[in-house]
Write a structure and sequence with these properties.
mainly alpha
Length: 209
């Protein structure tokens, strides 16, 4: 479907984009500090699962609506910002249970995944990214356009999951060294709440490019 030059160019460009610090990495790190390594990795998977939604949306033209309609863009942006702020406030409300959050056996993975997935879907910047970046590597002569979008989305998502999972592992390792005394555990939820609210405010005031 793709020639080697196209794939290499796409992968190289994706690596540069993935390595650039952004809200996704901040969310993964915050979740890792708050709930541990597995929650951080699951958050990375949830965020990147949303990539497929944006890939399909870009292929069928929904992203173009966000790019051209100020009202549609604002609705998605404000919903995403409100959801992040809601999660942040919720994290603050749970700070009293922060000491035991990691010790609950079988703590569900659905929560972190669902929250990350919704956050990713409600991020209009990701939608516009797929509209502006991915089509440069899509060629109708190569076959079904939707399949090309999904294929490129899979490549991007896998690379981002690997990178953000490494961030989660490194963060968890460093966090464990600081939390053995138990003092830092009191601040886990506060740190998570602050990051989430900060990301929500950032998205709220973010202008469309």
């Amino acid at each position: 479907m793709y020639d080697s030059t196209t794939l290499i160019t796409f992968i190289t460009a994706s690596i540069v984009i993935i390595l650039a610090p952004g809200p996704a990495q901040a969310l993964v790190i915050a979740r890792t500090i708050s709930e541990g390594r597995n929650a951080g990795i699951i958050t990375a998977i949830g965020l990147n699962t949303a990539v497929f939604v944006h890939a399909i949306a870009a292929a069928v033209g929904l992203s173009a609506i966000l790019a051209t309609s100020a009202a549609a863009y604002s609705i998605v942006k404000y919903l995403g910002a409100a959801y992040l702020i809601y999660l942040g406030i919720k994290a603050f409300s749970k700070q009293e249970s922060g000491k035991t959050s990691r010790s609950i056996p079988g703590r569900g993975s659905t929560g972190p995944f669902a929250k990350a997935f919704i956050t990713g879907v409600l991020n209009p910047k990701v939608a516009l990214f797929f509209l502006a970046f991915v089509p440069q590597f899509v060629d109708p002569r190569r076959g079904w356009i939707l399949l090309q979008f999904i294929t490129l989305g899979v490549i991007l998502a896998i690379m981002d999951i690997v990178y953000e999972s490494l961030l989660a592992i490194i963060t968890a390792t460093m966090s464990n060294r600081f939390t053995q005394g138990g003092k830092f555990s009191l601040w886990r939820q506060r740190i998570t709440g602050t990051v989430l609210i900060g990301l929500g405010v950032r998205l709220f005031f973010m202008e469309k490019i």
